[in-house]
Every structure is written in C-alpha cells, then in structure tokens.
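Feature request disguised as a bug report, sorry. It would help if multi-protein outputs had a clear separator. Right now it looks like this:
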Amino acid sequence: MTGLHTLFPRSSFVGFDHLFNELEFTAKHAQDHYPPHNIIKNGESEYLIELAVAGFSEDEINIEVKDRTLTVKGEHVSKGREFIHRGISTKKFKRTFRLSEHVNVNGADIQDGILAIELHYIIPEQLRPRKIQIGKHEELTHDYNSQLLTETDGNHPSRTTL
C-alpha cells in the first residue's frame, strides 16, 4: 500500500477515511481471481454476480452480507474418491465483493456449476429526484422555514440564527 499512501497521503485529507479504506480494500483483493466470476448489469438497478463453482454442492457454499461486504465461501467435502487426474478445482475459497450502501442481495441460485447472486440497487426515497411545484409548499419545508424565522440570536433579537 505504499503507492497509495505516497500518491495520496492521509495527512492531506480530513474526513475521507472511508474512501481510503475502500481503496485499500480494493488493492488488497485485486489479485483474488478464484473462483472466476462475472459481474453483469441487467438494467438500471439490477446486477448479477456469477461465480464458477463446478464441483461444489449447495451445502458446501456459504453466502453472507455484513457491513456492505458480500462474502462467498466454499469448502469442498471430500467423498473419499481416489483421483487419477483432477482437473476440476475444489480448493477452499473466500471471495469478497464490496457493495454500495444502497445495494441489496435479493437471493442466490446454483445451476450448471454457476452460482448466481442477484443484487438490486435501491435509491432511498429521500435521494430520489422529485418535482417541485411552483406555488405549493410542502408541510415539512414550511414548518422548517417558520422555525428559522422565529429563532433569534440572544444578543441581537433582529437576527435569525441558522
């Protein structure tokens, strides 16, 4: 992480710890390539993560979301077979994906050796664009403005405090 710290010294940025943590997380996991995966965007707010998990059963895979991190773990249980050649990897794995704060995991399914995890980006109501009609005041905005106009600074009764 020397490159990141040299390029962007933390001492020059105040309040950006979360951004540095995300960059460090990304750099730390940049070389994680197993199992192979695809990230597909299906429309404006739908995503699909596909992981190649041939050789793993549903019981051998664990999917968890915690602190905006989606973690997929796989641990193959040996069936005691003797292999002459093993070309399908069943090594233990842990794959992590950082999720945006408004991304929800809808579910997962395994079909034909592909684990598919459905994600949905949901914009909260307060962040969605809304049309403001001229001449109409919303109750919340009106009350807030009235409150600002009636609050005064103790030293100067004619000033409003913000």
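(second protein starts here, but nothing in the output says so)
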Amino acid sequence: MAVNYKDSGVDVEEGYNAVNEYKVHAKRTRIPGLLTDLGSFNGMFEVPKGIKNPVMVSGTDGVGTKLEIAFQLKKYDTVGIDCVAMSVNDILCSGVQTSFFLDYVACGKLDAKVAGQLVKGIADGCVDTGCALLGGETAEMPGFYDEGKYDLAGFGVGVGDKEKMITGEKIEAGDVLIGLSSTGCHSNGYSLVRKLVKDFNEPFAGKTIGEVLLTPTRIYVRPVIDVLSVFGESVHGMVHITGGGFYENVPRMYAKGKNLVSVIKKDSWEKPAIFDELIRRGADSEGVWGTFNMGIGFILAVKASDADAIIARFNEKAASFETEPYKKAGAAPLKAYKIGHVEAATKDLGDDLKGSHEATKLI
C-alpha cells in the first residue's frame, strides 16, 4: 500500500487552513511600504523615503518556555505578542521603529485554529508596534515535537538614519536613568518560574497565577518613538531588560571605552506582585535581579536637565498607547520613573561589562 505525506503525520490541507487564518490577521498589519501579501515566496518592503543615510537594524528572539504555560491553560492568543515584543524592543534600543516582522511557528501536529490564535497575537504585536507582518513559516514536524506543543520565534527589521542612531556614545556621568514599567515577567526567566510554580490554576491576585504569568510583554515602541520625536537629542542610551535582568543588560547600552557605572535605586518604582510571590516561593532575593526585569522593562539614559520633562511626557501620554490585549490581561498602564543615574567609574572596568556588578550598582 502506497504511503502519502499525511500518513507520515503532515497534513497539507490543515496547513492551507492555517494560512487562511493567518491572512485574516496579517491584513490588520498593512502599512505604507508593504509591497506583497502573505503567500508569496518572499516578502517585499520599500525602504522609507526621506532617510539621508539609511541603516537596517534587525533583532530576533523567541517566546521560550513561557509557551508551556499557554499550552497547559490552552490560551494561545497572547504569546505572539511576546514573540514580537522581544525583537522590536531590542531594535528600539538604537532609536529605530521596526518596519516589518516575520514569524516561525513549529509543531508536531498542526491545528489550524491554534496556529491561527498564535498568529493573531503576532498580528496584535505588529499593530501595537506599527509594523507589517511580512511573512513567516509554519513547520509541521511529527515525531520531533510532541503533539499539542508549538515553538514560536521571529525577527524584525527597521530602518534608521545613521546620523540619528542611538549608540551610547553620548552617555555621560550625570545622566539620569528613566525606567519604564513592565507588565510582569515579560518573556524571561520562565524556566525558573516553572520550577517554582507547579499548578498554574492556583488563585493569585484575583486570577489564576497562570493567567498573571501569561500577561504579554509590553511593547515600548510607540511611547519611546514619541519621546524621541521631541527629546531625541537628550536621549543618550537605551536598554531592553530581557534575559539576565539588570546586570546582564544595563551595561550593553554603553559604547566601548566609556567606563561608566549605572546606579539604580531598587525601591524607586512599584513592582508587580508576581515578583514578591516568586521570592516567597523560593527564588533567591538577590539572584532575581540578574534573572527578571523586576518591574522595569526598558531604561533610557537621558540628559539630566530634560529628565523631568521626559518622564512627564511618558506619563501624560501613557493611556493613549494602551491597546486592548493589555487591558484585557489587566496589565497596569505604562509608567515612567526616575530610577537612578550614571556616574564615572573609579577604576578601569574594561569593555566586557555584561553581568558585571561593578558596572551596574543596585542600591
């Protein structure tokens, strides 16, 4: 008896059904510059006009083991936002807004409705960012992934003006550090989370703890680009607090040879309750600062004389940048805080500052 592709576990028809689901969501992300629709061999996007010396900036990431909570709760419609957020927030650190995003969905057995919900979240993230969902890949790999399990990753590309890029070269002693609030754990540290939390249906903060942990990563693109449009010359460096927490990420904003130290006051912002809960369950109270964002997902190093005005603009306009997925998840609105300052190092710290407790002082 002849064996066909479906007999091996790959359902081509279900793949077609999934693509039809994707197309509905991708339409919501159409923006000027998009030249192709889903279904082509490739995606095309026109380089924005008016940029004197265009530079392409890219970022790539995945959702990680946060997906396991989505599988257990059978809630698939927000982890796509995490997928987009992790890349576009990285790209933003150079002062660039992402132009387009591509995704990669992999699974053992494809369910078009589940895949459609995953891509719905990706489209929601693209809408929030103001970028196009240019294309993607869905890979059904029976025997490689367990049935019911999906992996989700992607990458984004933006175009900036070389003369206006934020490189960290302008950061200097006396700059103020402004922290932007996170929605919770975002999409980092979930291997530790899953070791500490065994039942995601446990009640917590008026929901289940699983629902709280699935709160989508905040996308900072529109509020930060808005601030840059007014205070661009005063923003000297930016940081996305991702895996590795403060110690791993804050030093990444400095250009080589700057020999500067970030001093951050740990009690200068309101922390989401989930972090204290994880510490209560056994997370190391010092180690969490090198694992989680602890309530601050993005940091700007700014000229001291403009710090108060920048904070005021973030907070005055925060409500206008809130989107429905975050409201539905019960995430608190974005809030900006003055969390510290930059000072000169008292000795040569070298160039490789990632993870350095000397380059990032938490007090």
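Even a blank line would do. Unrelated, but nice: The radius of gyration is 21 Å.
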